[in-house]
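Ligand-bound model needed. zinc ion.
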Amino acid sequence: MDKQAVFAQVANLEERIGELYGELGSLKKKIMELLEENSKLQIENENLRNRLERQTHKQGDVSVPLGEGFDALARLYHEGFHVCNVHYGSMRTEGDCLFCLSFLHKS
Ligand SMILES: [Zn+2]
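Prediction:
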């Protein structure tokens, strides 16, 4: 057995694993960005839908009941994303967010 060759092979493998690890890291970052972008768009969409709903119900000054939009935001929060203005659309990494909770409770 050529020990030199085996060592070279292991070193080569180590290098490739290092590269793969780096690639995995950047993919993970990209997925994170996409998820956050997606949640931001969802929030935006719900806000626009709510505004539209409120506008169509404007006549008579009836207070508009909380619609589907609100449910969607609550769901998004429970999926682990911020829906508050402070951290807007980013992933919740530290448990509950007081800004989100107060936003969801007053909406
Ligand atoms: Zn929040």
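The pocket of zinc ion is lined by residues 82, 84, 86-87, 97, 99-100 (CB under 6 Å).
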